[in-house]
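@channel sequence for tomorrow's demo:
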Amino acid sequence: MTNIELIKQLIKRLKKFSWLILLLAIGFAGFFYYMAKQSLVLYTSKATVFPLNSSGDNSVTSSTISNILGLSDAPKSFSGEASINIVELATSRRTREAVAMERIPSMQNKSIAQLLIEEHNRHTGFMQNEKIKMPQDSMQQNNIGSSLLKGGFSAKINKNGILELYYSNTSTDLVRAVSYVYIDKISSFYIDLKKKKAQIDFEFAVKKADSLLVVLNSLDQRAIALDESTFFTNEDLKRYSLPKQNLMQDKSTVQSQYYYAVNNREAAAYKLQKETPIIEPLDKPEPPFDSSQKSSTFYILIGFMLGLILGIILVSFKIINRFLGEELNKAIEKATRPKPVPADAPLK
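structure tokens (generated this afternoon):
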């Protein structure tokens, strides 16, 4: 069978069984349509938060929280703000576990971890999630809840410097509850961080100022002792004038340090007393939420094309198999056929 004969037979057979190919294509398209409709509908909330008392541009950077802490208006002499990536904090395990442990009074006072496991188990079955057995230990529940939150939560900084929080789930009630808990936990963390950092800075500034004051008093005592020991001496002599000059230089240096230490102490006290909310929702995570599901049209096209390909292969398999068998036999015969001996070849 030549290649041209093969093509003619294939076209003839495809025309003859075109109804079967079309039937397979329609069947696969219907099956993929069913798969698309069986997929879960995810609802996604979007919340944007911003700092209440940030700097003049009201922007939140992704690398520091100095602006979101609302402390940029403090005296410039005090430095050393806490630095942390706010996006990593929002998606950290610490935050997820704190959210998973929170209980929702409107949902039978169950923890978010329990609610997530129950919602997960409602959508198990063919080509869907595997069922999760509810652990009796609360720590195990929180670990599972933290893992489930990780797949549905994301955070980013938009082009305007505003923090955006997204959470997706199959339950609109859970989407709303979890989103608000996330905002509360992030805000609470920053409030605690501000207080802790301000307390540490204040204690350090107080100790530094007190230690410099002790040094100043010590220098004064040395100066008094030097005066009392040099009543009738020639002050132009180096051995009497140099100690006084050195004491004056040391005192001037320590006084300068003490001035900055007192300034830092007042700045630290100001920060310690400043207790304001850190972030406030600009766009609250309220319905209607964005919903997403697998595209039925896309799945129908994939199923239809797959059915066509399988139908063509199934219908053409017999002819192609026969053609390959003939070609293989020809190759074997050609390989095993003895080569003709030339007439002028020498006899062995």
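heads up for whoever presents: The CA atoms of residues 88 and 246 lie 53 Å apart.
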